[in-house]
């Protein structure tokens, strides 16, 4: 009896473990297998069985790491993340704190409106903003021109970072706002009522009491937002046809996609993907470790 | 006692709301425009083509757009439901049982969140094709069921919402483990599971890469991939912008309705990790 | 014991049935089911076939643009999955053959050769005895211009590229807000066609060695020409197929477009207000009085290795031949998909009625046939996808920065050659 009892949690976990094995572990193993192989052609490379899979060891990794576009892409994504994450979380925190104030009006409306973009798929969001970015069809530029100004060029150079950041800020602020807001609601009001009676301003209360109390949820939103940022894909892909300035290697994921799908280099793409996954894991675990250590001390 | 409104915070929030509504308002207006109005008239004024756009969208390839919507509902609905169930049992096991390897299993599953979808999608396709499942409804449904994030949430929620004493008491009474779960833990975890369901519903509904890689027959497309294919018609047929815009507008309505409808059950506090354990 | 024998008998019967199927008698189990991936709307044409041929049932699955279709079909083939028939642009055929997507159907479809011109047929055989696809449409380049605006600004239709540049300058002078056209980096097919006209062959083979000529003299001349126009600011540098481009065509901000005979279909949707205002003229020439042109796209119906594996190659070849040579099918193709048929007989047949969008040019297809006569032959290689994608990024950058186009071309060339070497192709030079 005790023996069967011990297997109970494993029974409950069985579906998750099987699914994990089939749809996470196996594909990753397969990707690792691909990354160590390559296709080589015989003769002209035409006709049946002109290509065969050969073992190439770490060659694909060497090529992937030597490609300056991978590093450049990582740099672009970091720059985009450095613009996006603080802006998005800053706004989310600001809105959440404002929602938590006692004398704010139209709260339900604002909360819902700001949350709404969460329901819009990234592809569609980028499509909508794309229209708004094109000077000749955008109502924003129409108004600016009518007022005698010329709008910024959002589809080239530095403007592009603004354009992409804006799409993600728009899509992500509401969700993070709700998360932070709910954390704020869970803070017992007694904790700051006395401060209020002592004449502290709302800003002081927010800064000295509320924010320190919700630190765990801020850390969590920061963590998940950063992960999502590193995985940016749909937005630049959708904007790409609208501009000359978004290369297919703009972000490391786009490069993986291009190599695997557009250029038929499944094997080298697998190597790049494995590198990216490893870096992501490493960064995530170091971050979590750091947070845990600071929380412990 | 009547309290004065603080206007500055209210105004800032309303500004935020306006910013978030602009593109939605734009698509609402743009969807009312006929093809020649779309780029020639000021975009924040309604046009005259809403009904003809709707009719055209419905007529496009015998109403394939509505099939896409149904498919999206199917993938997201069934996928999220299964996902919630799997998350529930796993989260419950991880929170309420002490066994060897618990930490390892949990960590390994969690790393799934960090796996870039693109690293997974291609090998998933190649493997599913080997068992003849690529291109079927299953190829999108099955990989969507396991949600590491959902399991994480379910664990947090089970730890908080299901008291150990209740379980122990029931065990004393000789209840079977499975029954313990279905009749005690499940109802207690239900509000959290609704959140996981909604979370996963949105994730699947908004997913693009997986169905894009898996599916070939546009009768099986979800609405994201369908709209994308409308946008990429190839060199000799440029994007059908009026259709895309009308389709985009319609595609966001169900999710908004779902959120409004289930607003009461939407326990986001779960996501902020503040449930006390 | 008794039971075991019975089982053995059943097993034997089963294996017999299997061998029977192998021998090509699937008719016993109902019609042969074929799936086809295409970006053109071919469903209606397939339905016509299905109505007349109960033994072979074709289902068309419409896909996104050409590039994505190639990508998808290659991935599918790697997994042993995918359609039985696939629509492919000519330049992608070597890539598809090299990736084992297409199969040789010479024994079933070799007879179709007579229906097509030699240069078109060569593109589906790759100069070998094999036949990988049946040509569907050709796409000779021409100049499309707004007749009304040319008159309004007193411009003459350019006959040479020198005149073309002159026309662009004149227009800029008369109205700085308009441009003759744009140089778009987002479809290398157009640039490839223009290079063909100038005499380039991007890929050639001799023996088992490839020769890549993306960066040859003729292509450099074309790159230099367009780069100069962009640098001088006399034409636009923004990509095609964007909402902004649609608007520019629709409201006359751009008044000409170097395109292929399928342009009327595109203009119908991108510039709906300009019906009857466009005209087609032969492509400007490098040498006055010449009549050469290149191609931008054009496609064929390929038969896949999967069809061959499943014993459906013959049925697939039969359908592909019908689709692209039967007068009734071609008439439907022209109507449904707006293609300019590759079959020579059809090019002068009544199937081609004046495009609805060009009522002012009743001799549209007579002129098209004239232009098509001067189509330069094209040579494609096994990694056109790599070359085309590099083109997008390299020329996109050059067009935005107004920097050297020949340097961008050099990048495309080098990346293409490096990719081929990496894959083990033998390359000359």
TrEMBL record, chain A:
Its main location: membrane. It comes from the Bacteria. It holds the Pfam family BPD_transp_1. The chain crosses the membrane at residues 12-32, 77-100, 112-134, 160-184, 213-234, 269-291. Residues 74-287 form the ABC transmembrane type-1 domain. It is a multi-pass membrane protein. Keywords: Cell membrane, Membrane, Transmembrane, Transmembrane helix, Transport. It is found in: Cell membrane. Belongs to the binding-protein-dependent transport system permease family. PANTHER family: ABC TRANSPORTER PERMEASE PROTEIN, DIACETYLCHITOBIOSE UPTAKE SYSTEM PERMEASE PROTEIN NGCF. This is Carbohydrate ABC transporter membrane protein 1 (CUT1 family). It comes from Lentzea atacamensis.
From TrEMBL, chain B:
This is Carbohydrate ABC transporter membrane protein 2 (CUT1 family). PROSITE patterns: ABC_TM1 (PS50928). PANTHER family: ABC TRANSPORTER PERMEASE PROTEIN MG189-RELATED, ABC TRANSPORTER PERMEASE PROTEIN MG189-RELATED-RELATED. Pfam families: BPD_transp_1 (PF00528). It is found in: Cell membrane. The keyword Transmembrane helix applies. Residues 69-262 form the ABC transmembrane type-1 domain. One of its GO terms (cellular component) is plasma membrane. InterPro entries: MetI-like, MetI-like_sf. GO terms for biological process: transmembrane transport. The chain crosses the membrane at residues 7-29, 73-95, 104-126, 138-160, 180-205, 239-262. Keywords: Cell membrane, Membrane, Transmembrane, Transmembrane helix, Transport. Belongs to the binding-protein-dependent transport system permease family. It is a multi-pass membrane protein. It comes from Lentzea atacamensis. It comes from the Bacteria.
TrEMBL record, chain C:
Keywords: Cell membrane, Lipoprotein, Membrane, Palmitate, Signal. Gene3D superfamilies: Periplasmic binding protein-like II. InterPro entries: Bact_solute-bd_prot1, SBP. It comes from the Bacteria. Pfam families: SBP_bac_1 (PF01547). Residues 1-27 form the signal peptide. PANTHER family: ARABINOSE-BINDING PROTEIN-RELATED, POLYGALACTURONAN_RHAMNOGALACTURONAN-BINDING PROTEIN YTCQ. This is Carbohydrate ABC transporter substrate-binding protein (CUT1 family). It comes from Lentzea atacamensis.
